[in-house]
Write a structure and sequence with these properties.
Two copies of one chain form a homodimer. With 425 residues, chain A is an alpha/beta fold. Chain A has twelve helices and 15 strands.
Chain lengths: 425, 425
């Protein structure tokens, strides 16, 4: 067995086929995927995933927030399993790879171990986390956050989507409210493979990103209250909420750009109350997403944005409510697990570099309670959260191979020590 | 009868009571009215109006677009009737006076003539025009526009609301698709009383605005196509549709302000496609409303706005479709009818001034085919298209009295010449 290990490779065709087969659950005409968490499409892909895991010899457990844990037993089932996986939900107009790659690559790792007849020391636990995207229910990475103790389960179960449906109701509706207490299943380590969702690897022609850090994230909800008036109102008498919003959008862009590349900021949602073509907007709700890998810069961004908003409110004679709804500090991944990923990349001969994750991931939540790291592969033009999201079969396979060998290193294969053991710090 | 005429006054209490009684059809908790055209609430107020007109001895006719014509016969029913009236539909969060005052003051004029036993030479025709507001179906002032020949009836009947319901279906649903051909009913003149919807009369402490001109109106539909990306995308790689929109909103404000007080411009509707908190907006639809009383300035505004949008598209690397969906030239009301309004104001001893209407009105459409003018009364703080819209009982009564005496002058009361005859030019 030890001789086979260095050359062991996943089945790239099989992985590629799985990615395209599951993309049909919520597939869009433009080649993307619309699979909101806990929707009917999510139910279908979950059923597919459970069947595939069981066919691969795993026992599938579901926790109280619907996260799925497929266990491949090891030689010593008293050891905490080594977690791999990601998520199967998508953005409203998402792509085929975000989350899906890491989850199905985990399945492919298990199938590859089965095909090669390899038993690991520790079990392997393949995870599909509920609601990574946060498009239907806030916050994003909800289930991994609860797993890590950031939220209570009751709190999360009561969160509502825009139609007033709660997480609990949605779980019941698709039959995925499991019995396992959230956070009970201990993991020895966790490795998540994901597309980069940024342009760096592609531009530098690198195959693997060894993710050593994740950006901190600030989410805000804002509400501007000006005054609804007829569109014939003279310019000088207006308190136009949309004009104030426009100034906020441009100010926030300036503030983030001043800290580039250590900061990004986005206003992603804007809703005018009672919009009408011939009415000056009187009230607008908006959301904001601000990110940085550096905690000091996050503090500065928060302060600069609040100050800019206060100035705009005064200048434009509008009231602006602006409150933080979520704050996630930057993630510093576990050095030993990062090293396992880096060594696997090197051993497999892939070009690689250390990288920072711009997006939030379930791995960022997990890192607080489980030694964790991530593997990135390039995606076309850095495009994600878009139906045009794309990645090559070769890069997906490379990422899955790094996942395979990092997991083997972390789980251990024999007592003889021919697979390096990583001790999470 | 001639002796009574100079002192004839409408019943201010009755008018005030009618305004508040009808405000219950679609009344909002904040004291405004939500009575979208051809809605259930509109059906209720139309029934109330028809019953009141019939009780006042009028015969009520309904045309193929639902506009209602209540005829009070004159001495010579071969003469074209003198039109008075306005509209009973409101904005989604509108007030109690916009449109309602002019329509119910017309009813009050007829009741006052009845009470005084006055027969006019020409008949009086009280009109409730369908869909002045344009909030549910575009364009605004739809029925008066069709009356004036700006649109075909088939075109208007096929217009859809945001749920895909056509005007024809909505008319049938409330039972107000009438049999009278649109535009068939000839009018000798038309006078519309309305709240100013601007601050000038209140600031100058004038009771009556003698409206001599109406602003020209340009309506545009715009669509910005950038690129949807994950909110972690570095600032320099973005093609953010919302940032482009923000620049447009501020540019258009600058352009209109540069021509103030001869121009106003408003972006009233903004819809992000597939909005998500952590996605850079890729596509945005918006509408724009631009107004000026001067045709040369309208041409300059159109040119400046198009030029600014082209610059922003290039700078922000987005595509921007921007098309004119409606263009109404400035209205120059009929000098003889304007004079009738002015003379009635003077005869009644009200302080008054000539004024330009910032808003579009059915009277602006009518003016192309019927000698027309308008009467304005102050509204509180110039606020309209808002639940806080307000006007005093005294000002409403003053406007109705001017309407009464202008209508008497235009319709003629006796052959003796003691009421001035206005000959529309």
């Amino acid at each position: 067995m030890t001789n086979r290990l260095p050359n062991l490779q996943i089945n790239a065709e099989r992985l590629w086929s799985d990615i395209h087969e599951t993309a049909q659950f919520g597939g869009t005409p433009k080649g993307g995927v619309r699979r909101l968490t806990l929707s009917e499409e999510d139910r279908l892909v979950r059923n597919w995933f459970r069947n595939a895991c069981e066919a691969a010899g795993c026992e599938v457990h579901v926790d109280a927030l619907g996260s799925m844990f497929a266990i491949r037993p090891g030689r010593d089932n008293g050891k905490p399993p080594i977690g791999i996986g990601s998520h199967l939900d998508t953005q409203p107009t998402g792509g085929k790879f975000d989350g899906v790659l890491g989850t199905l690559a985990g399945l492919e790792v298990i199938r590859t171990l089965n095909d090669a007849g390899i038993e690991t020391d520790a079990p392997i636990c393949l995870v599909n986390w509920t609601n990574e995207e946060g498009s239907r229910f806030a916050p994003a990475m909800m289930a991994s956050g609860a797993y890590a103790g950031d939220f209570t389960v009751d709190d999360i179960l009561s969160r509502e989507d825009s139609d007033g449906v709660t997480v609990g109701e949605a779980l019941d509706a698709i039959g995925y409210r499991g019995s396992e207490p959230v956070g009970q299943r201990q993991l020895g380590a966790f490795v998540e493979l994901h597309i980069e969702q940024g342009p760096i690897l592609e531009r530098e022609n690198k195959t693997i990103g060894v993710v050593e850090r994740g950006q901190g994230i600030l989410w805000y909800d804002g509400r501007i209250t000006g005054f609804e008036r007829h569109a014939s109102t003279p310019m000088e008498y207006r308190q136009d909420a949309l004009v104030a919003l426009s100034e906020i959008v441009l100010a926030v862009e300036r503030i983030a750009s001043a800290h580039a590349p250590q900061a990004v900021a986005t206003v992603g949602e804007v809703v005018i109350a009672n919009p009408s073509r011939n009415v000056v907007p009187g009230e607008i709700a908006f959301t904001m997403d601000v990110r940085s890998p550096d905690e000091a810069i996050m503090t500065a961004l928060d302060s600069d944005i609040r100050s800019a908003i206060a100035d705009i409110a005064m200048l434009r004679k509008v009231a602006i409510a602006f409150e933080s709804v979520w704050c996630k500090p930057p993630t510093i991944f576990n050095p030993a697990v990062v090293t396992a990923v880096e060594q696997a990349s090197a051993a497999l001969g892939y070009s690689h570099r250390r990288i920072i994750s711009g997006a939030g991931h379930d791995a960022c939540n997990l890192n607080a309670v489980v030694p964790t790291a991530m593997i990135f592969v390039p995606c076309k033009d850095g495009i994600s959260h878009n139906e045009l999201e794309d990645a090559t079969q070769a890069d997906c396979a490379a990422g899955a191979n790094v996942l395979l060998h990092a997991a083997l290193a972390l789980a251990g294969v024999s007592a003889s020590g021919d697979v390096p053991t990583v001790r999470p710090s």
